[in-house]
Design goal:
This protein is of the alpha/beta class. The protein is about 55% helix and about 10% strand. A 5-stranded parallel sheet has the order 2-1-3-4-5, sandwiched between helices. The radius of gyration is 18 Å and the shape is globular. It starts with a strand and ends with a helix.
Length: about 220
């Protein structure tokens, strides 16, 4: 994995913490987003732990650049905030989740392992918090929301139900219980939704469901 943070003490702490795990290898470190693309070319990490706020090229720009690549690594955003606009933008760009800088070491290690395995690092509670924050997302959201209904039209009825449940922040087991299907079937539907809509992870499913107004429909009396 690759560590990206402008604070050398933070990088040293993360390197010590993550380097102690037998199944995690630190292949490189960067102090600014401007260094990331070249480092990824040279080291080919599976996961990048990316600070958001850096002096030259910030983590948001670096995330958007990396996720535009065919061989994009998974990205975990490192931040001091739970759900500010910058975290939301990073998740829309395809980051697999975020961890707070004051997260206990064992949880950061677990988060890296989950992302490496293809699972997003967002709990259902955090997903719900992000959806609430997205409701007040200004600016480019208008164009995004006008396009969203056409995108979700590609889903069949069952996939649409699963997308709404993901948007509500339900875990796979909760979706399975609510929609009377097995957890394996839920995972299959999620995979199909990702493929049909060309999305990176279930966080983006939740955001698209929000943008398309699907969550408002489920909240209507």
């Amino acid at each position: 994995m690759l560590l990206v943070d402008d604070d050398p003490l933070v990088r040293a702490g993360l390197s010590f913490m993550l380097g102690g795990a037998d199944d995690i290898e630190i292949v490189g470190e960067a102090a600014d987003g401007a260094e990331v693309s070249a480092l990824v070319d040279r080291t080919h990490p599976d996961v990048v732990l990316m600070d958001i706020r850096m002096p030259s090229v910030d983590g948001l720009t670096a995330t958007e650049t990396l996720r535009g690549r065919d061989d994009a690594p998974q990205i975990v955003v490192l931040t001091t905030f739970h759900a500010d606009d910058q975290v939301l933008r990073a998740l829309r760009a395809g980051a697999a989740g975020f961890v707070l800088k004051d997260t206990p070491p064992a949880e950061i290690v677990a988060a890296v392992r989950r992302v490496a395995a293809g699972d997003p690092v967002l709990s259902p509670a955090v997903t719900r918090q992000l959806m609430a924050h997205a409701a007040g997302d200004p600016g480019p959201g208008d164009g995004r929301r006008s396009r969203a209904p056409d995108r979700v039209a590609a889903l069949n009825d069952r996939e649409r139900e699963v997308a709404v449940a993901v948007g509500r922040g339900l875990a796979n087991a909760e979706i399975a219980a609510a929609l009377y299907m097995s957890v394996a079937t839920v995972k299959t539907h999620v995979s199909r939704i990702l493929a049909k809509l060309d999305l990176n992870n279930r966080v983006q499913i939740a955001l698209l469901a929000h943008d398309a107004g699907l969550l408002e429909e489920t909240d209507s009396p």
